[in-house]
């Protein structure tokens, strides 16, 4: 970058900025030196001339310039709220003659729209606002006019003047459908634009019988197997390039649990020492700790000290590439847990449509998580992880009721060390012409989850109590040393903050769970967090009231102020039904929730949250219990979303939380006995059923009234549906959501009300619902009756049901044949049988509902 001439009378653009430049991919030494001279020419101060990113004086910096986030001090810089920006932020600032927003040039890989500048052509106003909000929130930029900075034009057709002009002038800009942004935001990953490019986007073609192929993926190199069987070749280790720089001035400790032979250990030791490094046997002196499992005092001590902890695959990667990378950047560069991830034991997972390194990586990740990876898909499989849904395995999985998800579910479960819900739409989204193998391996280890589940400050204090030596120092001078028993009240950085709960007894390598008790200090009292309060895992028991602390808070508030509107708009638009491309709302739409509107927050997940995260006090008055209310058939809210929002907020302030989840509802409000999805599903949980008059009266009097004063009484519909509401609720309490337990009920794909509706009703009552398409070879899952099961119950469980319409007769003979081959009695019934059984909370005879 050539230095630019500046006007001596003008104020220096970077006069208030203090920089550190970190070399790596995208910024070599020569480019860094040129960039430093440009910054100095415009008044900037270069704090350090060391370009390795280690031991940066963070307290002196305002900006860190690096093309990636992969350098040793990145986590500490993030904790200190110092922006890490890409080199072209400097060019953008000079072009604007003012400091550009650092967030739009952040090196954070989570900002998937970084380097994207969009210009919208012919979109509806609502869709335009939604896409712009999402792109800004995810690190991109928007330009109202076409300029040289624009990278993507968003359009529905090539008919607009902007698109015709770009095509005629052959400008280097991609014209994409808005569907691309929708799919990227749903996945949280940036996928290839090619299937969405106008004028002939692949996703709109009718003939798409060929499965999509994965684009090139460079995220998996050297990170496929956590326990590689082969070391780097001798030609790689003894290369002519000279000693490795990655181990210079480093002390490396090799753990005993690696299980490597003496010959290989000697080779690695010689290699490190020839590179100006040193191999140590003392974990307190080590800068790098190489181990296989997440267990043992050495692992906990080095982890608590903020030192690099990786496995053998990570060590080989450093040797092969001769450049530092964080062991948490790739999931299989970090040590594994001996007992696997809780909740994964017993799972049988198969893979489909992943190939090459991506398939090997996922197979090893499944094994590391503690599940079984099967080469073939069978009916006893629990999950199918697929890159797209165009395969025989996917079709069979749908017929057999096997969960179909993408690899993000596996990666994020492993990263966060918690089994993620498969109902999350991110894990079940498959863009039509995208092979998700192209985004495999982009998930990082969640360092906060590691700290919570695998090592705690108390562990280190106990080790220090045994050894009276001085506490070891962190490799980063900005991180505080580990506290000992004599310094437990000293404020700590986020790397060594105390957790809310601890349980000292645990098996090696097995995560521990909190007990809800918080320790103040050795001399303090035990206390339980007050009810209703939200306690952050990252908050210390004592906060230092120093000048530097106040400055850091002011700086953080200023930075958050710049981005909060973008994040709010994105989070709101992301939750809209249909995504961001199927119709939008205008800014002046009366039903649109403003970005500056604040909402209250409670401890319940059904309640909304304020922008600042502060809880809002409920109405003054006597203490009362909170109820969770499911509402069905309340006509006052139909087509009146503003009234609905206002009423729900008022009810929440009264202690009535309106929920959409029948399993969470303690009460159900309806104007009469209904046969809606909500009402029928809620019956399985035996809620207290009240009339919607309860809602009206509470809103009118602005007071929490006793729900028992508003029972739902509907004799007319009880007679019409031939049920007794009181008897049904009594049976529901006795059933405990097990009305259909042990039964597999099939349902055709095309049916009034939709397959998902009947599936949720069946599962709410403890049954299993499979879609039936008449595939040859399908078998009914076998279930052995318990030895104490009565003869009548055995006969009932021998029946297998198919929910069908009269127009699906072509499938009936196949279903009967399948049931008889499985030694079951086939029952083909209308949906009315299922609805009436769920309403009555007893399995009714098929009677007039059976189809012949």
TrEMBL record:
Coiled-coil region(s): none
Family matches, as Pfam families: BRCT, PTCB-BRCT, RTT107_BRCT_5
Gene3D superfamilies referenced in this protein's UniProt entry, alphabetically: BRCT domain
Superkingdom: Eukaryota
Composition bias, Basic and acidic residues: 459-477, 515-525, 586-602
One example of a Gene Ontology biological process annotation: double-strand break repair
Residue ranges crossing the lipid bilayer per the database entry: none
CDD domains: BRCT_BRC1_like_rpt2 (cd18436), BRCT_BRC1_like_rpt3 (cd18437), BRCT_BRC1_like_rpt4 (cd18438), BRCT_BRC1_like_rpt5 (cd17743), BRCT_BRC1_like_rpt6 (cd18439)
Cellular component annotations (GO), alphabetically ordered: Cul8-RING ubiquitin ligase complex; nucleus
Record-linked PANTHER family: REGULATOR OF TY1 TRANSPOSITION PROTEIN 107
UniProt name for this protein: BRCT domain-containing protein
Record organism: Endocarpon pusillum (strain Z07020 / HMAS-L-300199)
């Amino acid at each position: 970058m050539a230095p630019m001439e500046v006007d001596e009378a003008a104020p220096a653009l970077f006069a208030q900025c203090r920089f550190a430049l970190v070399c790596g991919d995208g910024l070599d030494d020569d480019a860094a030196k040129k960039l430093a001279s440009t910054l100095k020419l415009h008044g900037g101060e270069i704090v350090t001339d060391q370009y390795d990113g280690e031991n940066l004086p963070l307290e002196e910096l305002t900006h860190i310039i690096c093309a990636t986030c992969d350098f040793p001090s990145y986590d500490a810089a993030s904790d200190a709220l110092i922006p890490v920006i890409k080199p072209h932020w400097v060019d953008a600032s000079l072009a604007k003659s003012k400091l550009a927003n650092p967030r739009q040039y952040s090196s954070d890989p989570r900002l998937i729209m970084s380097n994207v500048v969009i210009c919208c052509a012919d979109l509806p106003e609502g869709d335009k606002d939604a896409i712009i909000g999402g792109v800004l929130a995810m690190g991109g930029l928007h330009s109202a006019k076409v300029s040289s900075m624009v990278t993507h034009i968003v359009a529905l057709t090539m008919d607009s003047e902007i698109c015709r002009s770009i095509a005629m002038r052959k400008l280097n800009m991609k014209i994409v459908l808005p569907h691309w942004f929708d799919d990227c935001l749903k996945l949280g990953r940036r996928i290839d634009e090619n299937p969405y490019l106008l004028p002939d986007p692949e996703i709109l073609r009718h003939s798409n019988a060929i499965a999509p192929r994965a684009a090139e993926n460079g995220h998996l190199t050297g990170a496929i197997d956590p326990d590689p069987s082969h070391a780097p070749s001798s030609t790689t280790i003894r290369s002519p390039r000279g000693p490795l720089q990655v181990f210079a001035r480093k002390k490396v400790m090799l753990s005993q649990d690696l299980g490597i032979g003496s010959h290989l250990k000697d080779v690695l030791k010689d290699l490190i020492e020839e590179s100006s490094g040193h191999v140590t046997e003392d974990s307190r002196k080590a800068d790098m700790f190489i181990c296989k499992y997440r267990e043992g005092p050495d692992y906990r001590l080095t982890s608590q000290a903020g030192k690099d902890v990786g496995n053998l695959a990570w060590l080989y990667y450093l040797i092969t590439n001769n450049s530092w990378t964080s062991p948490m950047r790739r999931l299989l560069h970090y040590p594994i847990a001996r007992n696997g991830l809780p909740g994964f034991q017993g799972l049988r997972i198969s893979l489909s449509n992943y190939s090459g390194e991506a398939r090997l990586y996922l197979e090893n990740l499944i094994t590391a998580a503690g599940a079984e990876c099967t080469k073939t898909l069978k009916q006893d499989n629990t999950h199918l992880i697929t890159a797209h849904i165009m395969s025989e395995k996917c079709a069979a999985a749908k017929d057999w009721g096997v969960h179909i998800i993408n690899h993000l579910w596996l990666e994020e479960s492993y990263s966060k060390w918690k089994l993620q819900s498969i109902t999350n739409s991110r894990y079940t989204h498959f863009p039509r012409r995208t092979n998700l193998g192209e985004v495999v391996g982009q998930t990082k280890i969640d360092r906060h989850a590691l700290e919570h589940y695998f090592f705690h400050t108390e562990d280190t204090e106990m080790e220090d109590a045994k050894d009276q030596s001085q506490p070891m120092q962190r490799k980063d001078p900005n991180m505080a040393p580990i506290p000992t028993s004599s310094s437990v009240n000293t404020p700590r950085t986020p790397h060594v903050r105390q957790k809310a709960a601890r349980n000292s007894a645990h098996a090696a390598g097995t995560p521990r769970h909190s007990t809800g008790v918080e320790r103040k200090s050795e001399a303090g009292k035990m206390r339980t967090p007050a009810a209703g309060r939200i306690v952050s895992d990252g908050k210390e028991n004592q906060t230092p009231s120093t000048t530097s602390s106040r400055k850091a808070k002011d700086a953080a508030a200023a930075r958050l102020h710049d981005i909060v509107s973008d994040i709010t708009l994105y989070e709101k638009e992301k939750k809209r039904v249909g995504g961001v491309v199927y119709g939008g709302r205008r800014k002046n739409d009366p039903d649109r929730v403003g970005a500056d509107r604040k909402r209250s927050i409670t401890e319940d997940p059904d309640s909304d949250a304020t922008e600042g995260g502060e809880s809002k006090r409920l109405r003054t008055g006597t203490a009362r219990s909170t109820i969770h209310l499911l509402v069905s058939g309340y006509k006052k809210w139909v087509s009146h979303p503003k009234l609905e929002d206002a009423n729900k907020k008022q009810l929440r302030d009264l202690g009535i939380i309106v929920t959409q989840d029948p399993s969470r509802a303690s009460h159900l409000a309806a104007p009469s006995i209904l046969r809606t999805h909500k009402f029928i599903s809620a019956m399985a949980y035996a809620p207290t059923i009240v009339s919607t008059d309860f809602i009206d009266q509470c809103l009118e009097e602005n007071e929490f009234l006793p729900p028992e004063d508003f029972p739902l009484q509907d004799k007319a519909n009880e007679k019409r549906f031939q049920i007794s509401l009181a008897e049904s609720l009594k049976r529901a309490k006795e059933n405990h959501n097990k009305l259909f337990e042990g039964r597999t009920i099939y349902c055709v794909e095309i049916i009034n009300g939709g397959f998902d509706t009947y599936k949720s009703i069946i599962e709410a009552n403890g049954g299993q619902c499979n879609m039936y398409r008449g595939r040859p070879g399908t078998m009914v899952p076998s279930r052995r009756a318990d030895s104490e099961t009565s003869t009548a119950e055995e006969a009932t469980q021998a029946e297998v049901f198919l929910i069908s319409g009269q127009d699906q007769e072509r499938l009936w003979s196949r279903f009967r044949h399948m049931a008889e081959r499985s030694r079951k009695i086939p029952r083909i019934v209308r949906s009315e049988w299922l609805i009436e059984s769920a309403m009555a909370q007893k399995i009714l005879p098929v009677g007039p509902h059976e189809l012949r």
